[in-house]
């Protein structure tokens, strides 16, 4: 058992949609600030398409990017060929930085694989249904328990209100 916690961070619509055309299908400034607070200083594991949607590495976070074929040359990016390899690299980076968590931040295929491995999920439930081409897997209540929930009204730079929920894995 690893001493480093694996945290999934995601924003998803009521119908499970997390992305459309390589981007998020909403503007949520409040949630982007929360994402930064949750991830700053921690290694962040993402798939190549999610990384490319950022445009460049997010400052203050080492990135581990999963791709079977592409190589990204950047001092803040380490490449991996699979989720298990990426998690191993991120855990090493976390230990070196004195961090106790790594963040798994998408996209859809990465989340689907990570659900079985994560210890905690920080989910922004966007209070709308939207069209999209990428979805988050269903959250199984027999595996996950909501331990904290905060309703967040839409701020002036947000398209929708949200409900921020922290889920912990239920012990077997």
Fold and architecture overview:
With 172 residues, the protein is of the alpha/beta class. It has one domain: Dihydrofolate Reductase, subunit A, CATH 3.40.430.10. It is 23% helix and 31% strand. It is built from 4 helices and 10 strands. An 8-stranded mixed β-sheet has the order 5-4-3-6-1-7-10-9, sandwiched between helices. The chain has a two-stranded antiparallel sheet with strand order 2-8. Helix 2 links the parallel strand 3 and strand 4. The longest helix has 15 residues, at 83-97. The radius of gyration is 15 Å and the shape is globular. The mean pLDDT is 95. This is Dihydrofolate reductase. Key enzyme in folate metabolism. Catalyzes an essential reaction for de novo glycine and purine synthesis, and for DNA precursor synthesis. GO terms for molecular function: dihydrofolate reductase activity; NADP+ binding. InterPro entries: DHFR (IPR012259), DHFR-like_dom_sf (IPR024072), DHFR_CS (IPR017925), DHFR_dom (IPR001796).
Provide keyphrases for this structure.
172 residues; alpha/beta; Dihydrofolate Reductase, subunit A; eight-stranded mixed β-sheet; 23% helix
């Amino acid at each position: 058992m690893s001493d480093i916690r694996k945290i999934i961070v995601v924003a998803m619509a009521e119908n499970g949609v997390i992305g459309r055309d390589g981007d998020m299908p909403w503007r949520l400034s409040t949630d982007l600030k929360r994402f930064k607070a949750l991830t700053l200083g921690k290694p962040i594991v993402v798939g190549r398409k999610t990384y490319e949607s950022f445009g460049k590495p997010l400052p203050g976070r080492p990135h581990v990017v999963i791709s079977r074929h592409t190589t990204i040359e950047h001092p803040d990016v380490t490449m991996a060929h699979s989720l298990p390899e990426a998690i191993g690299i991120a855990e090493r980076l976390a230990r070196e930085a004195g961090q106790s968590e790594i963040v798994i931040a998408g996209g859809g295929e990465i989340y689907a694989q990570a659900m079985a491995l994560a210890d905690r999920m920080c989910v922004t439930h966007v209070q709308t249904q939207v069209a999209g081409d990428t979805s988050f897997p269903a959250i199984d209540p027999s595996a996950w328990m909501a331990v904290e929930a905060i309703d967040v009204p839409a701020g002036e730079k947000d398209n929708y209100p949200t409900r921020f929920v922290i889920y912990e894995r239920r012990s077997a």
